Amino acid sequence: MLTRNCLSLLLWVLFDGGLLTPLQPQPQQTLATEPTENVIHLPGRRTHFQRVKRGWVWNQFFVLEEYMGSEPQYVGKLHSDLDKGEGTVKYTLSGDGAGTVFTIDETTGDIHAIRSLDREEKPFYTLRAQAVDIETRKPLEPESEFIIKVQDINDNEPKFLDGPYVASVPEMSPVGAYVLQVKATDADDPTYGNSARVVYSILQGQPYFSIDPKTGVIRTALPNMDREVKEQYQVLIQAKDMGGQLGGLAGTTVVNITLTDVNDNPPRFPKSIFHLKVPESSPIGSAIGRIRAVDPDFGQNAEIEYNIVPGDGGNLFDIVTDEDTQEGVIKLKKPLDFETKKAYTFKVEASNLHLDHRFHSAGPFKDTATVKISVLDVEEPPVFSKPLYTMEVYEDTPVGTIIGAVTAQDLDVGSSAVRYFIDWKSDGDSYFTIDGTEGTIATNELLDRESTAQYNFSIIASKVSNPLLSSKVNILINVLDVNEFPPEISVPYETAVCENAKPGQIIQIVSAADRDLSPAGQQFSFRLSPEAAIKPNFTVRDFRNNTAGIETRRNGYSRRQQELYFLPVVIEDSSYPVQSSTNTMTIRVCRCDSDGTILSCNVEAIFLPVGLSTGALIAILLCIVILLAIVVLYVALRRQKKKDTLMTSKEDIRDNVIHYDDEGGGEEDTQAFDIGALRNPKVIEDNKIRRDIKPDTLCLPRQRPPVEDNTDIRDFIHQRLQENDVDPTAPPYDSLATYAYEGNGSVADSLSSIDSLTTEADQDYDYLTDWGPRFKVLADMFGEEESYNPDKVT
User: Is Calcium among this UniProt entry's keywords (predicted)?
Assistant: First the structure.
């Protein structure tokens, strides 16, 4: 039976649901069904029709209700013929409960239910399955739809959803008279087994009533049941599923049955005359008295209709039936005046609305009584001419302007004058005043509609002769709007435009808002401000429906050239006086894709086309700065010049040679030696004292002959040697003087080892012996160094 049901549901899904074409007949013992070949066209994969096989196979379409197993319940398996078992196909599941109720193994296509299901909550689930290529993520076949049905179990008892029931049947009804039909509902599946097959029976209420076991119709079982003997009956009904068999679930309900009355008694007045007293001040439509006729019947048989018999007072009074109490309510149709007439007399007739022809022979079903009304004289308060006064006034109306008036009169015979005043409880801010004699209302302060659009207060009128007699009326004043506020653009004030925008493209729809109370049909107009209308990048297109569009005028925009545009838009209303305002919209240029979707509007995105963040850009710049600092420091160190110290021989034992371990200041030391003459031979100091020694006595400055331009360096040095030889202040020891001045055409280029391109090993120091006795030590020193270690390079 289960296999046949499964196959029936599967065939219904395939044929009626349109999932697959008709299948070839298959053996009943299998649930898996292999579809036959169809002629289909797969979009984007074939250029012509060819016969392919739809590759879905469902092993099962049912899941057991209220499954309580520890493991997920296996439902079925999805499989595609294109799946060769190589792991290249991914199965997806969507639809009812996908992911929350049912899960699918993306590789094998197995479907499991991950929670317990209730068929009464949802009997079936419609899902869609698809096979997707796991690498290209493209569907291999069109999406298919299938149904998973929840298999029912008998877990719900029959329930009377409308119980307990209340029914009625007329008294004296014959046997088998219809009373009521009850119905029990079983939430189980009516198409599966007997779980929802219900049988009815009476547990309490016999022998008065009976019930049909299949339909649940209750009928009378005894004749001539009298309401006066027993009016109420309580019947207990049972509904049992499984066809009433043993083990079925049952539910009960109570039916309260009432015997209704038949109209066999006419209404009767308890007395023939009714006396009523009515004040003359009674308002029109008010109830001035009640009379009642008694009917021993019940329900609609006791409903009474009252009518005034034409005669005295028939046009002044009216009578209606109170449906709750079945009393006759007498109401006033016209005002009473004690001074005109003091008493009225008329007759009232009471009759049943629903007559029963079986009892007409008992007599007429109606009765008559007399009503006498006495009018009482009453001193009344003043009466306003209207129950509510409504007035209108424009905002900013000058103080003291009269906007309306109220009128009240004393209707008594000796009428009295009336005084008016405003109830201070309702108008505590005193926006209005009233003339106490005339009743005219005027403004007391300037009114602002935007602050308060409506005022509601009360005016009291009292009699001058008796101030305790007063009446009150409500005043409703509407403040009319004056056009004083210009319209403004509704948000947003900022929009965006794509860099690849085309001319004539609408990038934003704007509307206007007005703080004034806009009258019906008011129109707003939009335009570009005059100063922005000259060669505009954007323009405003008025749609004439209180909206406008921001339209591009250029073929593309560049964020590098200009990121923001400010567009002044003028909005004007149609009220009087006309108000207008200029609103500036900010338009930001953004990068968009070909469909116009905004990708980025940030400024940093201009400089980061490859997707670098701000932090990465700062790190790169910091590294560049550090590298530049290292290069500058290296160049500075290379350019720093070092000076070699003068090497003296430690083997020289002559007494006139003094060894110094300290280095001179070099070219920067201008205190020990004056090297200005070497740098510029034309400069000769007239009064120059030697600073390398401390003279014992003050000596006259030495006269140095001028050195001509381009003097050979050898002549220059000999000249200085002669000056030192004849100088009486020269020290009695050798002294070494270095000069930076080379002269033109020098063979040795430079005497400085710092700037020399060659080493000491490459130089010949024999010429030092030709410079005289003062350079002999220096010549011997370099000569010994060269002979001792000729391969050494310093």
Answer: yes
Local structure of 642: helix, strand or coil: coil
CA 225/CA 174 separation, integer angstroms: 9
Instruction: Provide the β-strand partners of residue 178.
Output: 219
How far apart, in whole angstroms, are the C-alpha atoms of residue 789 and residue 794? 11
Cα gap 92→98, rounded to integer Å:
9
Q: 159: closest CA among 212, 51, 237?
A: 237
- What are the residue ranges of helices labelled H in 194-342? none
CB neighbour burial string for 373-407, b if at least 16 within 10 angstroms, e if fewer: bebeeeeebbbbeeeebeeebebebeeeeebbebb
CB 527 within 8 A of CB 540: yes
256 vs 164: CA distance, rounded Å: 8
* DSSP-derived pairing of the beta strands 89-95 and 547-552: unpaired
Closest CA to 646 of 712, 736, 546, 516: 736
Give the per-residue pLDDT at 746. Answer: 53
**Amino acid occupying residue 36:** T
Distances (CA, A) of 110 to 31, 44, 75, 124: 15, 28, 8, 18
* Mean pLDDT taken over the chain: 77
Q: If you average pLDDT over each of 61-70, 187-196, 279-288, 296-305, which comes out highest?
A: 279-288
The tokens of 341 are what?
Answer: 């007439």
793 and 760 Cβ atoms separated by less than 8 Å: yes
Cβ atoms of 470 and 381 closer than 8 Å = yes
Between 394 and 414, the more confident residue is 394
Q: How far apart are CA 513 and CA 488, in angstroms?
A: 5
With bands split at pLDDT 50, 70 and 90, how would you rate the model's confidence at 179?
very high
DSSP 375-388: EEP-----EES-SE
Q: Which residues of 99-136 are buried (b: 16+ CB within 10 A; e: fewer)?
A: eebbbbeeeebbbbbeeebebeeeebbebebbbbeeee
Cross-strand partners of 480: 394
Residue 160 DSSP label: -
Q: Is residue 211 classed exposed, middle or buried when 0-12, 13-18 and 19+ CB atoms within 10 A define those classes?
A: buried
Question: Which helix (DSSP H) or strand (DSSP E) does residue 787 occupy?
Answer: helix 776-788
- Bond prior to 123 in cis (omega within 30° of 0): no
Residue 3 has a pLDDT of 40
The secondary structure of the chain in percent helix, strand, coil, rounded to multiples of 5, reads 15, 30, 55
> What confidence tier does 670 reach under pLDDT thresholds 50, 70, 90?
low
Beta strands per DSSP E along 400-524: 402-405, 408-409, 418-422, 432-434, 440-443, 454-463, 470-480, 488-489, 494-498, 506-513
Q: pLDDT tens digits for 723-758?
A: 777 776 665 555 555 555 555 555 555 555 554 444
528, with CB counted inside 10 A (0-12, 13-18, 19+), is: buried
Is the pLDDT at 104 greater than 80, yes or no? yes
DSSP string across 109-134: -EEEE-S---TTT-SEEEEEEEEEET
- Tally Cβ neighbours within 10 Å of residue 238: 19
Q: What is the pLDDT of residue 738?
A: 55
Could you list the beta-strand ranges (E) of 160-216: 165-170, 178-181, 199-204, 209-211
CB atoms within 10 A of CB 61: 20
Residue 419 identity (one-letter amino acid): R
Strands 250-260 and 199-204: unpaired
Report pLDDT for 666: 53
Greatest mean pLDDT among 25-29, 58-62, 152-156, 511-515 = 511-515
Higher pLDDT, 613 or 680: 613
Task: Provide the β-strand partners of residue 147.
Answer: 126
**Per this entry, what is the length of the chain?**
794
User: Residue 603 CB: number of other CB atoms within 10 A?
Assistant: 11
d(CA 332, CA 280): 11
Q: Is the pLDDT of residue 14 over 50?
A: no
Q: What is the mean pLDDT of residues 271-295?
A: 92
Per-residue confidence (pLDDT) for residue 477, from 0 to 100 = 93
Instruction: Look up the pTM and report it.
Output: 0.33
